């Protein structure tokens, strides 16, 4: 069954971004608490309980929704912040919570059974049986699919499971299976899985090296540029590594995902919702991306399957964009 | 009550050989396991392909003989699954192993759905970082949990010590750091996963990468990214035993694994001091650095000297 409407799910790192996303036409925004319970635990970002309540009121008054990401993996002996986050999201009347850890899913299922549960991309459920496991045990209503599937894979999964799915449409492309990547913690000691930080700014350094600039994460050099050349942020999977005597972007280019030109295909695949990545991005960025997707989706709803004008190239990561895994051959 | 549990566990330290992550020629792989069966003081051996299903057919014909030889030597045989199951064909292959009576090490949540009520091992690619996920998985019939490589000692103490479930920690070898759909080994040769020509077979201990500054940090093995350093937790064995860890995993590298097992067994049995075993291990591992940072709550590539 093909849903008639594609829901636009947008990031909100701050209350101001939440309002900007809604004003620009987001159907739904997602956000997280200001601690290690969410996968974008960066300084100056995220919500406290009062801000969440206000943000949800702003959204609900306009007929929109708010999802709360509680999608890191609790540390043993210290699960309280995650349980508290589940209870707080329920108390704030969020429309759903986005979870990854089996223990947190179990807690939410028992303690907040009426709270709608979505499966985070951090759970890396890339096949029908995994999705069925989370559905059967935790009554998960929607799955955020990993960024490693082609459009054909996505269509097949939806057909087989009959589940609501949310797929990434714009933002960062991670080539690794999410929630199971320890590259950043191997270099910094801070973990995306437990602390919610990949390549934390506190461990990033740009160093002069003769005529060049080196970008480093912890003690590891991830790239080298001539002065004046734009230097992408040093994330382990977007660094340059030498193999067979040659330096290359071995894992992934510093490039942004942009699926705006394949919205008709994603809709035909049966996708329920499109996700814009980037809770760490500015309010202006959020407004611009959300506005462009709103325009494209409204056009699509009116039966316009021609590609809309794509003005987003300049703000994509590294100024370049890709269909990522959606297109066959990416593997 | 808790104290008794710990004591019981302490008496039963098991040495295991994790699944081979590398694509060795089938005959080399067979001979490796024959030697393990005949010579290695190891209790459990994990067979199966974790990294890439395209490699599976090569070893298929040798699997029955290898399994029989290991079992005849009194070793438990466990079948490890792929870390990222993406096709129905791959899932069916796993179900076939279940039917053949193998104990399964589930490395993708998909396997849990397929195994239903059958006892199984939770592999290190399913995240168990805390007691709630541990307890759920025990109720779901997990008999042993292999902890993720990133987990620090403080968490191991809670997860392993607070329950009677068997817990396993990887104490030797290159640490698997990520899994992907994309094959980086193929990509390094200008190929992709579908056209890979099995170039991963050229590097029996993984493809060494360097940073643009010449630092050796990561090793690529097909779709898997690993640490360049070998994790070596010899100094830490006694404290892991005390925490209630029951199984200690050696991950196969292209070195003398029989001798490696002998050194670890000696330290587990306290017949050899860890620092002495470390010096002997160095003679087997050439110039590959040792790492143990994750266990100490540090960056994984760190080496924290024993106290």
Explain how this protein is built.
The complex is a heterodimer of chains A (331) and B (307). Chain A folds into two domains: 7-173 and 255-326, Aldolase class I (TIM Barrel); 199-248, no CATH class. Helix content of chain A is 29%, strand content 21%. Chain A has nine helices and 15 strands. The radius of gyration of chain A is 19 Å and the shape is globular. With 307 residues, chain B is an alpha/beta fold. Chain B has one domain: Alpha-Beta Barrel (TIM Barrel), CATH 3.20.20.70. Chain B is 36% helix and 20% strand. In chain B, strands 1-2-3-4-5-6-7-12 form an eight-stranded parallel barrel, surrounded by four helices. In chain B, α2 (26-39) packs parallel to α4, α5 (88-99) packs across α6 and α11 packs antiparallel against α12. The longest helix of chain B is centred in the N-terminal third of the chain and has 14 residues, at 26-39. At the A-B interface, α4, α5, α7, β10 and β11 of A face α6, α7, α8, β7 and α9 of B. β11 (241-243) of chain A pairs antiparallel with β9 of chain B, so a sheet runs across the interface.
């Amino acid at each position: 069954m093909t849903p008639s409407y594609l829901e636009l799910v947008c990031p909100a790192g701050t209350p101001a971004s939440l309002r900007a996303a809604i004003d620009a036409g987001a159907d739904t925004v997602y956000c997280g608490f200001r601690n290690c319970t969410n996968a974008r635990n960066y300084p100056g970002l995220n919500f406290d309980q009062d801000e969440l309540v206000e943000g949800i009121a702003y959204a609900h008054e306009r007929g929109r929704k708010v999802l709360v990401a509680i999608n890191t993996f609790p540390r043993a002996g210290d699960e309280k912040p995650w349980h508290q986050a589940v209870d707080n999201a329920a108390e704030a009347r969020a429309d759903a919570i986005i979870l990854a850890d089996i223990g947190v899913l179990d807690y939410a299922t028992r303690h907040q059974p009426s709270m709608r549960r979505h499966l985070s991309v951090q759970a890396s459920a890339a096949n029908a049986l995994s999705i069925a496991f989370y559905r059967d045990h935790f009554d998960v209503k929607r799955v955020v699919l990993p960024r490693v599937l082609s459009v054909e894979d996505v269509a097949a999964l939806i057909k087989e499971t009959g589940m609501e799915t949310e797929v990434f449409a714009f933002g960062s492309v991670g080539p690794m299976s999410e929630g199971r990547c320890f590259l950043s913690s191997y270099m910094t000691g801070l973990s995306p899985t437990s602390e919610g930080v990949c390549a934390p700014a506190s461990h990033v350094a740009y160093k002069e090296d003769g005529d060049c600039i080196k970008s480093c994460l912890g003690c590891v050099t991830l790239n080298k540029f001539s002065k004046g050349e734009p230097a992408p942020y040093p994330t382990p999977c977007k660094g340059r590594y030498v193999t067979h005597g040659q330096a290359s972007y071995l894992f992934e280019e510093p490039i942004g995902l942009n699926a705006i030109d394949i919205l008709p295909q994603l809709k035909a695949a049966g996708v329920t919702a499109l996700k814009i990545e980037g809770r760490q991005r500015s309010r202006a960025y959020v407004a611009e991306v959300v506005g462009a997707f709103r325009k494209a989706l409204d056009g699509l709803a009116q039966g316009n399957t021609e590609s809309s004008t794509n003005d987003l190239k300049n703000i994509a990561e590294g100024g370049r964009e890709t269909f990522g895994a959606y297109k066959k051959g990416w593997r | 009550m808790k104290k008794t549990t710990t004591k019981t566990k302490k008496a039963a330290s098991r040495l295991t050989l994790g699944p081979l992550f590398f694509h060795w020629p089938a005959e080399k792989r067979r001979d490796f396991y024959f030697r393990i069966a005949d010579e290695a003081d190891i209790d459990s051996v994990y067979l199966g392909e974790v990294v890439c299903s395209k490699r599976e057919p090569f070893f298929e014909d040798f699997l029955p003989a290898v399994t029989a030889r290991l079992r005849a030597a009194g070793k438990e045989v466990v079948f490890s699954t792929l870390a990222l199951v993406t096709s129905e064909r791959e899932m069916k292959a796993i179900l076939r192993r279940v039917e053949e009576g193998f104990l399964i090490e589930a490395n993708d949540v998909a396997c849990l759905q397929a195994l239903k009520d059958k006892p199984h091992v939770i592999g290190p690619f399913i995240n168990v970082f805390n007691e709630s996920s541990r307890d759920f998985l025990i109720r779901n019939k997990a008999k042993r949990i292999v902890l993720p490589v990133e987990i620090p000692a403080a968490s191991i103490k809670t997860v392993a010590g607070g329950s009677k479930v068997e817990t396993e920690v990887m104490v030797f070898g290159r640490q698997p750091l990520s899994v992907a759909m994309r094959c980086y080994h193929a990509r390094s040769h200008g190929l992709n996963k579908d056209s890979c020509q099995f170039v991963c077979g050229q590097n029996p201990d993984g493809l060494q990468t360097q940073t643009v500054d010449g630092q050796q940090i990561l090793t690529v093995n097909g779709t898997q990214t690993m640490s360049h350093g070998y994790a070596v937790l010899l100094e830490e064995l006694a404290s892991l035993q005390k925490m209630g860890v029951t199984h200690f995993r050696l991950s196969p590298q292209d070195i003398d694994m029989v001798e490696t097992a002998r050194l670890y067994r000696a330290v587990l049995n306290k017949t050899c001091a860890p620092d002495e075993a470390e010096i002997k291990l160095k003679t087997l591992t050439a110039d590959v650095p040792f790492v143990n940072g994750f266990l100490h709550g540090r960056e994984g590539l760190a080496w924290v000297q024993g106290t």
